[in-house]
Structures are given as C-alpha cells and as structure tokens.
TrEMBL record:
The keyword Cytoplasm does not apply. GO terms for molecular function: odorant binding. SUPFAM superfamilies: Insect pheromone/odorant-binding proteins. GO terms for cellular component: extracellular space. Keywords: Signal. GO terms for biological process: sensory perception of smell. It comes from Heliconius charithonia (Zebra longwing butterfly). This is Odorant binding protein 8. The gene is OBP8.
Amino acid sequence: MLRILVKNISYSILFFSVLVYAEDIEKLKEKYAEIIMTCAKDYPITPEDIEQLKNSKMPDNAKCLFACAYKTSGMMDDQGKLSVEGVNKLAHTFLSEDPERLKKAEQFTDACKSVNEEKVSDGDKGCERAALIFKCSIEKAPQFDFIM
C-alpha cells in the first residue's frame, strides 16, 4: 500500500520523474518515501484514499499530505504556491545530462504554473493548491509524452 502511495506522490511531486534514469527513479522513490512517511504522521490517509489516488483522483484527506510533500521537496513555496523555480531546480538536478528531457520537464512545469492564479480558500497552507497541482500534472502529462 505504501508503495502505491509513494508511486503516486512521486509522480506528482516530480512531474518529470518518469523520464529520469532507472537508478535515479529508485533514489527518488527512497527520498520521497521518507518525505511521505514524515508528512503522513501529520496528515494520515486511509486505504480508500490510496485507492482514489491509484485512479488519479485526489481525496480530500490527501490534499494536505501532498502540500506537505510538495513543500518539503521544494516544489511548493511558503505561500502555498507552485514553485516553478523549485521544480526546475529538481529537473536540473536529475536531468542535467539530457537536454531534451530537461526541456520537456521545464515545459511541463510551465504548463502547470497557472495553478498559482487560481483562488484557494486555505491561503498559504497549500492543501487546495496541492490538489490543483496534482490535477494539472495528471491532465497535462499526455501532452508531454509523460505517463502518470
């Protein structure tokens, strides 16, 4: 069950993670498993929530878990907004030796930056925006040949 959660969050956390070399994917899974376990202490989710995530649906209980993971990874800033700079920094870390993949990752991130313009009611907490980021990443992935 944790493996499924790690997979869903890892893909959402790193829009471009499916393009990273196999050994880097394993490193990412380890890194994000740690982040998820830490965040899950404050934002627990149920097996039903995990089933929804497997079906690319964001359950209400998982929104703050994702916000925590996004903030911890540097993908979300302290104002609860998508950090394009943070995501691109991660892309450069893992894709610097593959300019084509790096460019696609940056374009993918750019395609989802509009989530920062959406009105949310939880302010800098970021839970609602985390759901928007998740939704955008699921919707935009096919346009960039990413599998979510």
